[in-house]
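sorry for the late reply, my laptop died twice this morning and i had to redo everyting from scratch. anyway the thing you sent over, i finally got around to it. pasting the sequence first so we're on the same page, its 217 residues, then the predicted structure underneath. double check i copied it right bc i was rushing
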Amino acid sequence: MKVIGLTGGIGSGKSTVSRRLIEKGYQIFDADLISHQIVEPGMPALEQIRETFGEAFLDEEGRLRRKAMAAHITADPAERARLNAIMHTAIVGAIEEGIKQARKDAAAAGEEENTIVFIDAPLLFEAGLDRLCDEVWLVTAPEEVRIRRVMERDGISEELVRGYMASQMPEEEKRARSQRLLDNGGTREHLYEDLEEALAAITKETAEAGGQGDSCN
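ok and here's the structure:
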C-alpha cells in the first residue's frame, strides 16, 4: 500500500485536489477534520488542553472555545508550540491507526499492493506526518495568486493573509521536501491534468513494485 502526503500553503488549492481525489474514490485521512474530532468532549487531547491551559478555554458544555484559543496562541508563539505539541501528537496517532486499519482492509481484500491512500494536511511537515508517507505531493501556486484567493474567499486583508503565510513553513522548504508538485497557478482543468499525471505515475509505480514482489516469491 502506498501512502501519499498531500499538502500546500494557504490559498494553494489543496482542498480542491483533496475533493477531486475523494470523487475518484481514494481514501483520505483529513488532518483538519481529525483535529476537530480529537477535541470533542471526552477525548484525551481535550483533557490535555484543559490541564495545560485551564478551564477558561472550555465553554459551559465542556467544548473547546476555539476563537479564544486562537487569539491566545496568536499572541504567544510559546503557547502555540504547547498547543501544537498536544494536537500534533494526537493527530499523528489517529492517522497512524487509520493507516493500520486501511492496510488490514486492503490485505483482507487482496488489494494491499494496489491500494493508494492520502494524508491531507496543511502542516504535514510541521506535524511530522511526512514520516508516514511514501512520498509527498505539494499543491503550489504563485504567492500573489494565493493571496488574492484567500482575500476573496475569506474577506480579509492582504496584511492578514501575509501574516498567515509567515506562520507556515516557507514554500521553498516544502518544495525541497516534496517529490511531486501540482501546479494550481492557472485553471482548474490544468490542475486536474497535473493530478491525473501524478496518479498515473504512482499507479504505475505501485503496479510495477507489486509485480516485482510477485516475481521474487
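Strands lie at 2-7, 27-30, 116-120, 135-140, 180-183.
thats about all i looked at so far, will dig more tmrw
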